[in-house]
Amino acid sequence: MTELQDYLPKTFLERQGKTLEQVLESLQNAKIEFSTKLGQADLFDPVAQGKWTPAKIADHLNTANSFFAVCLERAVKNKPAILMPKGHVTQDGRAINPGQEPRANVSREDLQQNHEISFEALTRYAKKLETPQLLDKICVTQSFFGELSTLEVLRLCAWHTRHHADQIPTVKT
User: What is the Cα–Cα distance from 167 to 148, expressed in whole angstroms?
Assistant: First the structure.
């Protein structure tokens, strides 16, 4: 957990924007960047030895974004925050996904469709969070960052999308 906390403190997420409008713009740009790279990638070729394929990366991202959309929805509906189970770390401090491994055998169309659906849900609930009370409302206790407000969740989603877009190799022409 120290790897994430040292590498990515919450203040780092503020680079995705300070206001809801800025964060939504960052989220939209990240969505487009990821979708473009995914559309050009060899889905089933690992990005490096021992690493996930672009299909697994996309499935992981779609799962995470769908989960965070549920967190935002709960905040809008004034429901209690979600408590994520604590993740695991390797001996050298790297995060291990506490859930199942991402699916590897998903079609490009399904990945792209789920990508669109998850971002649509994030955006829909984000637009309902216009009051400071809702932007600052804690909606999840996340496994590595601790308590996250709705605005922090949106920042995390934008950063997380960019992080994984950067992992997908650029197609050589």
Answer: 25
Tokens of 35: 């979708």
For residue 62, the enclosing domain spans: 2-167
CA angle 90, 44, 27 (to 5 degrees): 70
Positive or negative torsion for Cα 9, 99, 113, 50: positive
Query: In this model, does residue 93 exceed pLDDT 90?
Result: no
Contact 134, 57 (CB under 8 A): no
Residues 102-154: tens digit of each pLDDT = 888 899 999 999 999 999 999 999 999 878 789 999 999 987 788 999 999 99
pLDDT band at 3 (very low <50, low <70, confident <90, very high): very low
For the chain, the farthest-separated pair of C-alpha atoms sits apart, in whole angstroms, at 50
Residue 40 lies in a domain: yes
How many other CB atoms sit within 10 Å of the CB of residue 29? 14
- Domain membership of residue 173 (yes or no) is no
